[in-house]
Amino acid sequence: xxxxxxxxxxxxxxxxxxxxxxxxxxxxxxxxxxxxxxxxxxxxxxxxxxxxxxxxxxxxxxxxxxxxxxxxxxxxxxxxxxxxxxxxxxxxxxxxxxxxxxxxxxxxxxxxxxxxxxxxxxxxxxxxxxxxxxxxxxxxxxxxxxxxxxxxxxxxxxxxxxxxxxxxxxxxxxxxxxxxxxxxxxxxxxxxxxxxxxxxxxxxxxxxxxxxxxxxxxxxxxxxxxxxxxxxxxxxxxxxxxxxxxxxxxxxxxxxxxxxxxxxxxxxxxxxxxxxxxxxxxxxxxxxxxxxxxxxxxxxxxxxxxxxxxxxxxxxxxxxxxxxx
Length: 325
Hints:
By secondary structure, the protein is an alpha/beta fold. The protein has a single domain, classed as Ribokinase (UDP-N-acetylmuramoyl-L-alanine:D-glutamate ligase), CATH 3.40.1190. It has helices spanning about 40-50, 65-70, 110-125, 145-155, 165-175, 175-180, 190-195, 200-205, 210-225, 260-275, 280-295, and strands at about 1-5, 10-15, 30-35, 55-60, 75-80, 85-95, 100, 130-135, 160-165, 185, 230, 240, 245-250, 315. Helix 1 (about 40-50) packs across helix 10, helix 7 packs across helix 8 and helix 10 (about 260-275) runs antiparallel to helix 11 (about 280-295).
């Protein structure tokens, strides 16, 4: 069982333009879709499509549209009742795949809802192989909530994966001594923020075929306590670093249609491979295959197993320049 936790779920509405987005202009939409979303929900959806036992935990009223959408999609879930409506996020995609996201802050969680969410996560973790904590935090949850949950889970048997950003990520990093996750999944900008370097420099180096700056930054995060760092790098692929090695995977050429859910799909691919017994390079390969497949799909659609092409993803071990002959 993989438990995903989405404290700030959403209905993800994606609108596709037939031309480049022009600020201040009136433009025509060529298509529009709405899907249940939030990063953890997306991970659960992708795992469910692959036949992996997963359950999504989220705060939502039983009558909320996201609950109806999850039932329709066959995703197992557990809701913590709240009075506010789940937010709606809007993604605008252009013909070249460029995506602009407009995210609402989310409904306020009062003290009772916060306590109920915490209890629900800890109870579900008792029978889980993985707990995945994903996304932003809604009003009412403190910045260190993920760190609090990770520290509570540390003595248990389940593994923990965390994918977040901004202040929740900073609070987590500050608590690595007691709350270090088994896997943390930053993108280049988020990783750069943790170690005080330029995200543009990390992305540029990786795009030019030099992953060593990314590896060095990830190694610093591991030295602080994280066990494995999975860094998603968009069209350049991804880098995986753990205490035993580092690897890079490059995706096949695709025609990008939407980046919504691509990072979440990458994490789902990694977890699917891990619970299947794959070694780190194969986990990375699956992660990149999932991420690239998601980017080639419209809106917030997530890839099914028949859309995954593992053989098209190249994986290689990264040898530090200081050890090369």
